[in-house]
Amino acid sequence: MTDPIADFLTRLRNAIMAHHRVVEVPASNLKKEITKILFEKGYILNYKFIEDGPQGTIKVALKYDPVTKENAIKFLKRVSTPGLRQYTGYKDMPRVINGLGIAIISTSKGVMTDKEASQLKIGGEVLCYVY
Q1: For 39-81, how does the pLDDT look when each residue is reduced to its tens digit (9 = 90+)?
Q2: How far apart are CA 108 and CA 37, in angstroms?
Q3: Which of 22, 87, 121, 130 is packed most tightly, with the most Cβ within 10 A?
């Protein structure tokens, strides 16, 4: 697999389109950090890290509106790919839907949202957009 982050986002996107409640994804440290950010920002209901074997898995419980059955995640887009890395400074931080969505940034201080990176005045690699 050449792009595990794109695979993670695609598995989430496919589970949302199929209206699944839970999706299992092979774990990595970067995927764990992205999952924590999605949980903190309210895009997923819950998550659980399962240590089975050398790699482990991440179980992600997707969040749906009880009335309209719509998912909390409307859009997931991978920005930086292995073939074309996208970097940004803190002054040029991308704004997703004028600040309503989040951009997940990999910085020297760890993985964080665009707003947190702007406050700390650090740039990094733009991993994905979520809204």
Answers
A1: 999 999 999 999 998 999 999 999 999 999 999 999 999 999 9
A2: 16
A3: 130
Residue 2's alpha-carbon distances to 7, 45, 83, 129, in angstroms, are 9, 28, 10, 20
d(CA 18, CA 84): 30
pLDDT, residue 1, reads 78
Residue type, 62: L
Cα 93 to Cα 87: distance, rounded to the nearest angstrom: 9
Model's pTM, two decimal places? 0.95
115, HSE (Cβ side, Cα atoms, 13 Å): 8
Contact, 89 vs 110, CB < 8 A? no
- With both helix axes pointing from N to C terminus, report the angle between 29-40 and 4-17 in degrees, rounded to the nearest 10: 40
